Amino acid sequence: MCGIIARIGHGNAAETLLSGLENLEYRGYDSAGIAVQNGSGVKVHKCSGEVSDLKSTLTTHPHGNMGIGHTRWSTHGPPTDENAHPHTDTAGDVAVVHNGVIDNYDELRVELQAMGHVFESETDTEVIPHLIDEYLKSTGDTELAVRQAVDTLEGSYAIAAIVDGEEAVYAARKGSPLVLGLDDEEWFLASDVPAFLDYTDEVIYLEDGDMVVLEPDSYRITDLEGEPLERPIETVDWDPEDAGKGGYDHYMLKEIDTQPTALSNTIEGRIDNGTVAFEDLQSGTFEDVDSVQFIACGTSYHAAMYGGQLLRSAGVRTEVLRASEYKSMSGPVDDATLVVAVTQSGETADTLDAVRTASDHGARTLAVTNVVGSTAAREADDAVYIRAGPEVGVAATKTFSSQAVTLALLTQHVAADIPEATPRDDRASMLESLEDLPSHVETVLDTTQAEELAETYLDSESYFFIGSGLGHSVALEGALKFKEITYEHAEGFASGQLKHGPLALVTETTPVFAVYTGGEDEKTKTNAIEAQSRGAPIVAVGPDDHSLVDVADAYLSVPDTHPVWAGLLANVQLQLLSYYAAKLLDRPIDKPRNLAKSVTVE
Ligand code: M6R
User: Fold this and answer.
1) Residue 39 pLDDT > 80
2) Closest Cα to atom 10, ligand 1: which residue?
């Protein structure tokens, strides 16, 4: 949540900062700002609203070869002009952007006010420029002052600061992501790679406790004692095209449409002669594992349910837990427990907290993530990448599909290692049919009637999604996507649960989307019919050859395939349904209200 960027080099910084912020807006979009240093003071421009609002307030780009920028998801103080970043010290000589939460800001603010510092916002961040200013007065050394300031902070931060009259950007991180981008002519710092991917793919992923000083022709990384640190330079294999809209109205539709490619990348090289192999898995086999816990939030939790069910059906003791509830809901954890953290961004605070708790109990941890160098990837014992490419729309789409497939493969790999496991009889046909999944998704995209159905049911009071077995996770995901971007009431249920309460809400204005896979579908059919007999229109979502199609009022068809993959095809139909309903309702599809893509607060 919140995106920060900094740039220093030769030539003007403002345009680069603004375009970088646009690429970071998925991290927060309730206010935006930049500060540029041009030899005649630090110039701050900021406002509530999106980066496009900020741009419209700038008649010309402020002049200066270095600057910092921020796009906000508010935690402390509402989204007002005053609370927008960058924040400055009283004289306006030190400007800071920050992603994270400063826990001790209240006491620091009181101390600083007692020393005469004047505050203008309600944010936790504003203490940072005042602290830097205070230490600068006593040391006369900016690098030392920034080190002392961050040393005083409790909580999480990635910060970048500029100081009047200095040709440098100062930055530090603890608990929030920060990546250094290295181009021939300029250096960047940002919360995430897409901010500068148009300029460079050479990056350094900074670690907690790192501090960086960028100057026009050099950069240096130190620890908080000022000792120099070496960090490896890596090359990112994302294409700048992948991070753009590519002619689509919305990132979400682009990301739905590019699922065949994402899935091909996910699968590539991981199935060999009926066995599953992960080249990125460093630490050997899973033969010592006696139970597996999946932990995740939101859409990733639904993908984890998918994977969890497949592992359970291979005879492995499996729990699937919401990361935010991990401490209270987890069963026993020890060194025979494998904890699989499923997180697209690799930065979700609740998921990271659960990984750390599991580690403290001695568990082996494995991150399944989309983002190389993310905190989850670096903190877990192992990381497996879903290879979906950058996802910008706040609504997770292609990453769900790639997560579910990666997890399905991982479960086969893990089950093959565990002596007590009982790998599925149809494993060979399941793996073989996976090769066809990208082309089946293509078929769904080419033939879908989701747009027409979205229009048919647009005035409904509520939208229900039901499914059983693997269809259950898809039903939950369908409802989450629908409510997230349409703002309409939508709920997902295990099919058999409908009659235990929710049926009371069913009327002719509550369409029920019944997801089936050709596997465990009996309950879905009987419960759909029960809802239909109370007036609800039923939309069957699944393969053609099924008796539900005959009784349903409408139908979203998917190609016939192995039941393990059919749910993922049904999910593509539901993604499209949500997209078109939100479009008809004129919702801000890529930036739904109150949300952000990367949820870095608990
Ligand atoms: O980055 P993560 O996968 O850990 O994010 C978890 C959730 O915040 C995320 O899946 C969220 O539910 C989606 N934006 C929903 O579309």
Assistant:
1) no
2) 299
* Pocket lining: 392 vs ligand 1, CB cutoff 6 Å: no
| Number of Cβ atoms within 10 Å of the Cβ of 61 | 17
For ligand 1, the distance from its centroid to the CA atom of residue 497, given in whole angstroms, is: 25
Angle ∠(430,431,434) on CA atoms, nearest 5: 90
Residues 6+ apart with CB under 8 A from 493: 464, 465, 466, 475, 502
Query: Of ligand 1's atoms, which has the minimum distance to the CA of residue 351?
Result: 4
Angstrom CA distances, 56 to 29, 33, 53, 471, stand at 15, 12, 5, 46
Question: Would you say the CB of residue 177 lies under 6 angstroms from ligand 1?
Answer: no
Query: In 3-state terms, what secondary structure has residue 47?
Result: strand
Q: What pTM does this model have?
A: 0.89
The question of whether 2 is a catalytic residue gets the answer: yes
pLDDT band at 133 (very low <50, low <70, confident <90, very high): very high
Confirm or reject: Cβ of 293 under 6 Å from ligand 1.
no
pLDDT of residue 462: 97
Sheet of 31-37, strands arranged across: 42-48, 31-37, 66-72, 3-9, 186-190, 179-182, 202-205, 234-235
